[in-house]
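User: Please predict the structure of the protein below. I'd like the answer in structure-token form so I can feed it into my own downstream comparison script.

Assistant: Understood. Taking the following sequence of 213 residues as input:
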Amino acid sequence: MVVNPDPKPGRWLLPLAVLAMFAFTFMFVRTLPEAEVEPRPVTTVATPTTAGDTTEEETPAEEGEETGEEDSTADTSSTTTTLPPAVISYLSSIEALGEQLTSMASEVREVNSSWEERTITYAETEERLVRVMEDVIVWQDNVVRLNAPSMLAASHQDMLASSTRAAVAATTVVEGLRSSDTGETRRDAAAEFDAAASAFVSAVQRAHTTIGS
């Protein structure tokens, strides 16, 4: 009779089974292909930047400069003044009167020179000088009728004085032509007429300067 030295032979079965399962699992895992690991996207968190880091803050000086430009534009527009219609009409009238007197002075010079050279007849000389005299009388009346703005009173007085000089000189030119002298009266009166015309035009220019136009 064979005697079993281990009274509980089944007690080794469980550890052996566990060991076998562990070995099987280990070998099975070793035979599996390596799993591909997908790269995970790296999310970069943008650090918020302050206005001082990237852009220069608008300084009060810059704001002041912009405001100054706007104020400058406003000042420019505010200083551009529109003249009253009465002033515009007056300036236009004296400008036209100055041109008319300049034209008449040119006529007197031309007629006087032609008579001196005897390139025109006495009758034509008298006719043309009388026409100038009559035109100057009407012209002077238009000057007197003007209503000058108060700011141009001084220039207007000079125009009135010059218009009177021109009217007197034009009359004296005709009288000198008709006189029995050798032409001194006519020549002096023609020169006076020319000077009166220049004085009137100068007064017109001063009026424009006073207004700033």
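That's the full token string. Residues 35-39, 49-56, 72-79 have pLDDT under 50 and may be disordered.
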